[in-house]
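Example record

The entry below shows one chain as it appears in the dataset: sequence first, then structure tokens.
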Amino acid sequence: MNHTEASPASSSYEQEDATRTHTIETPHDIAAAREARISDASPRASQTSRTIEEPTVMPQWVFDYVIRPGFGSFLRVTCRIRFRGLENIPTRGGVILAANHQTYLDPFLLSIMLKRPTRYLAWNEAFNWKLTGKFMYLFGALPIQLEGGDRTATRRSLDWLGKDGALVIFPEGGRGNPDGSLMRLKSGTARLALDAGVPILPVSLRGAHRLWNRTQKRPRPAALEITYHPLMHTCCEAGEDERTAARRITDELAAHIASGL
């Protein structure tokens, strides 16, 4: 599964911010605006809406008993991988896993220890690639456009989170700096968490840039450390509009991820 340009689901949210001409100031206005946005993104928002075809994903037992254990064993031998904060991973309920993005293998790396159905937002163009594109749906990837709004991706994300699913997002919007430093995060992850009413699980992938950064043609062995930080529960604070809340939550998310690098 290739997530070279895995999006933070911020395209439609940030386009909305760019065209917004007023500030939401009261809790009532915040709730009303959120309900309107979720309604617009809902598959049931319009009776004339085109039915979204749900992708076919491999059975969960294949992930739990074949792919994740096999990939994890291989990495423990070749890359000396270790995990921290496993107790912070929720076993149920909707949750967004937000991590720094360094390699094509990041979705697999942070999913090794997950024992639950998971979906991943990925660059829609990657689904057209001859080799990997055909397998991305099977591994649970959901396409999202990087430019402009993508209501289909938003609907699918909200629907999956509403079914208590786990959703992986890379808020940098693409693979990060070759030296492993964190790029500025986009606020779409926080906006999606606020709309869905779910927490964010910050994840730090340390050493992944030495495994396969964007300047390398192929992966090479490297020591890896994956840290799952405590859950971030998202909400608007008193006197805070949703856009300000999203930026605050994004800054807090960046601090958590950076602390494990």
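Notes for this example: The beta strands are 81-84, 95-99, 118-123, 141-144, 166-169, 200-206, 224-228. The first strand starts at residue 81 and ends at 84.
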